[in-house]
Amino acid sequence: MKDEQHNFKQWIALTAMSLGVFMGLLDVTVVNVALPTIVRDFNTTFTDLQWVLNAYTLVYAVTLLIMSKLGDMYGRKKIFLGSLILFAVASAVNGMASSLLILDIGRGIQAIGGAGMMSLSMALVASNFSGQARGLALGTLGSVIAVSTASGPLIGGYLVEHFGWPAIFYVNVPVAVIAVILTALYVKETPSYGQQQRIDLAGMGLSAASLFALIYGLILKESHPHWSWFDLHISGLLLSGLILLLLFIWVERHVENPMVDLTMFKRRHFVGIVIVAFALGAGTYAYNAFLTALMQNYIGYSALQTGIRQLTLSIWGLVLGPVAGILSTRYSQKWMISFSMLIGGLGLLLIALVTGPKVNFSDLWPGMVLLGIAGGLVNPLLNTAGMAGVQASEMGMASGLLNVFRQIGTTVGVVVLGLVQDQQYENYLHRHFQQIEAPQQALTAIKNALITAGPFSGHSIAFSTRLKQTDFAQIVQQIVVKAYTNSMIAVSLTAAAIVIIGGISAAVLLHNHAETPKKHS
């Protein structure tokens, strides 16, 4: 009877942690759908609104490791609870925001809560469960990660369409209240492993500064694709980030109680795990943004219609996560991760094969299914494999590092895939605009407008009322659509290469059966 009651409490605890993870990751993507409505309500531009996205992305990435370390030192449940409360308060402020500045600040504060929930949930699950139940629990958490990331457009589209953009923030409040109550009652606290230690303020400051400089540099490059990598704004930030990272490594090697135990990176298995996490972010999470744009901007689906079709990707995480968690305790995680990544690469290759000017969902869904199966399997397997061989006192930091590499991978992927798309798109326009028989001055102006707008927005220019009045409108439209689909093929092939490299890295670096965590008194 006691065992049954204990098991019940464990699964209620898992529910609480899953709710936190779901909210934290959902808010990374859900805002994208609401941007056009927010632009109208605040009477602003998409450029000014960019910080609603960037504030969350930057602060989230910068604070992941800090929240992980604080959880390890002072108790993960305490920091997780504080993060939930902070996230709920910031969400309410965002919903009531009367200006863009308040919304930007609220998003940054919200990201601190999101980072705490995300970085500590995995470590809390690992410490609240043991044996085969741990594999199932981590697998379930992996399902939540996959579903929350992919379902943003669907949930966001529904809320914005029926209740307005503030609803995407207000909905977090009751969910967070439930999660706080369940966490307080059912989640077991972990020991305060470093409560008597001095906080590594230098390490925390340098890690935050280096991540900020590196990620903001990449965001600038994404926002200004025609700026050179040697532009002082971009190169200055990236170089500063690398210098700060080297300083961080030097400090961590010499301080008595380092924020990050760098010996974790001497373990081949752990290095393999973070490489796979990076590849997953760069090759699949980043690719979702381009797939969404293809469906909305070129095929013509609404945000809600796109979200429904993207269930083809997300539903597999819900179905396969617990299964993968159970299988990971019986079979080689190494080969399961490697094979799953290769399935994802195959899905991306299949999407590249069918992409063309007349592509629609009936062409895309087989590749999307394979990509969804890969994500549904890899996420929970990464969670389980990432905790293997990690000391109990370092589980929070291991979880934080896994999430940091996944987040950096997503940011790098968006930039790299975006540059590939821009280059292919522009090259096609340059080559084929020369073949149009029309006044060169007008063609040059149209081509420059298309290039400035970029692949995502080129379709709206090509099919605008003004351009339709010209004699050469149809040929321009054909060229723009073909330029975009060619660029999407290149994006799909690049993403496939990243994911396949991640699968090969898993096969080379991961252990078949990673060592079990060391016991701590």
UniProtKB/TrEMBL annotation:
Its main location: membrane. SUPFAM superfamilies: MFS general substrate transporter. InterPro entries: EmrB-like, MFS, MFS_dom, MFS_trans_sf. Residues 13-514 form the Major facilitator superfamily (MFS) profile domain. It is a multi-pass membrane protein. CDD domains: MFS_MMR_MDR_like. Gene3D superfamilies: MFS general substrate transporter like domains, Multidrug resistance protein D. Keywords: Cell membrane, Membrane, Transmembrane, Transmembrane helix, Transport. The keyword Transferase does not apply. The chain crosses the membrane at residues 12-39, 51-67, 79-103, 109-129, 136-155, 167-187, 199-220, 232-250, 270-287, 307-328, 335-356, 368-388, 400-420, 488-510. It is found in: Cell membrane. It comes from the Bacteria. NCBIfam families: efflux_EmrB. Belongs to the major facilitator superfamily. EmrB family. This is MFS transporter. The lineage of its organism: Bacteria, Bacillati, Bacillota, Bacilli, Lactobacillales.
